[in-house]
Amino acid sequence: MRVCVVGSGGREHALAHVLGRSAEVVVTPGNPGIPGSVGTPPTEVDADLYVIGPEAPLVAGLADELRAAGRLVLGPGADGARLEGSKAWMKEVVASAGVPTARHRTFDEVGPAVEYLRTLPGPWVVKTDGLAAGKGVLVATDLDEAIADVEAKLSGRSFGDAGRRVVIEEGMSGPELSVLAVCDGTRAVPLAPAQDFKRVGDGDTGPNTGGMGAYSPVPAADEAVVAQVMERCIEPTLAELRRRGIDYRGVLYAGLMLTDEGPKLVEFNVRFGDPEAQVVLPRMTSDLAELLAAAAAGDLTAAPAPTFGDDACVTVVLASEGYPGTPRTGDVIEGIEAAEATGATIFCAGVARDETGRLVTAGGRVLNVVGHGPTVAAAREHAYRAADLISWPGMHRRSDIAKEVAHR
Ligand code: AMP
Ligand code: GLY
């Protein structure tokens, strides 16, 4: 089988790496750190299966375009991708489906939004309706900060058009969990759960990012928790989408909070998580290409259910100075080979080559260092041992990825 992976980040590198165990893989546009990267646009790549990594092309309808040309695609059409493209629409769908989630309302104007904020006990959560690369959410413990954020978003100042509509919701608390399910339009199967670290700083401080690290498995998420998430969140949503005439073939990623009242939905993404994919996919012991092809063809029963090893993976994201704001770029990256020599897996995201062929930084999240081990503690130790060998001017990373679970 020849698989075309669309995208250019660490998630796509992980997809290519694991799909490459059983398939021939090309990545478009990829990056200079991902083997098999090609310059050809996806519509001109000849493949048996197309796997679309990022949300933006899904929301823009790339899956529809490829399907219209008769191709087999893993990734929802623009209709299903609205689950991620519009938080307001997502909330409406999950309300119809009866999925447990935070109390919320949607606003286009400052006055009523502020009035609603004042009725909530706090912490206050303000989200852009549209896509904002994981950065459009403010969780505030200060009401004035929430009000200022609503004004900045609705005026278009902070996130352009993506923020001209906002969803305001009550704050929930509890450990977070990512459950990714592969869907064939009717059925869904879960992958191993992961936990992601969204804030830029140690101790979950500072602004939200696309994700600064992750680990899998998650001891707090046993089979019963995953079954609950499938029954209460994934399956009802898939059924609701079907009811609305949407044939959802792709990954449905539930971002959850494990509250005192059970798992509650924080968000849906319509693709593999980044950096969750980097710790979930390497643990797979069944054939990923076969699974995704079956889902794309609308019949998951044609592939064996996904299985995972007992080993653990921890990834630490190495980021450029300035991220999640405007990153500094063009710095030479040192130490990748030494890190790989420890047995760690390095997935490349924001990288380029300079005129002399050296790998340099070219984005905010630059590398994912993945450590492996029999336990999360061992994988964590491995990830940091390898990450310590990589550097460039201004590089930053969190030092507490998976720390709590490793010490439990
Ligand atoms: P989202 O983009 O919707 O996943 O939100 C990004 C992050 O903001 C989540 O991973 C949570 O850490 C946090 N967050 C979102 N919604 C809530 C909420 N209702 N209560 C508490 N934290 C939240
Ligand atoms: N890790 C969060 C995301 O992929 O959106």
What report would you give on this structure?
This protein has 408 residues and is of the alpha+beta class. The chain has four domains: 2-77, 3-Layer(aba) Sandwich (Rossmann fold); 103-170, Dna Ligase, domain 1 (2-Layer Sandwich), CATH 3.30.1490.20; 176-302, D-amino Acid Aminotransferase, Chain A, domain 1 (2-Layer Sandwich), CATH 3.30.470.20; 312-406, Phosphoribosylglycinamide synthetase, C-terminal domain (Glycinamide Ribonucleotide Synthetase, Chain A, domain 4, Alpha-Beta Complex). Helix content is 30%, strand content 26%. The protein has 13 helices and 21 strands. It has helices spanning 10-19, 55-59, 62-68, 78-85, 87-97, 110-119, 143-154, 223-243, 276-280, 288-296, 336-341, 376-387, 403-407, and strands spanning 2-7, 24-29, 49-52, 73-74, 104-107, 124-128, 137-140, 166-170, 176-184, 188-190, 195-196, 199-201, 205-208, 213-216, 249-259, 262-269, 312-319, 345-348, 351-353, 359-361, 365-373. The chain has a five-stranded antiparallel sheet with strand order 11-14-17-21-18. Strands 2-1-3-4 form a four-stranded parallel sheet, with helices on both faces. A hairpin with a 2-residue loop joins strand 15 (249-259) and strand 16 (262-269). Helix 5 (87-97) packs across helix 8. The model has no long low-confidence stretch (mean pLDDT 95). Bound molecules: adenosine monophosphate (AMP) and glycine (GLY). Glycine binds next to loops.
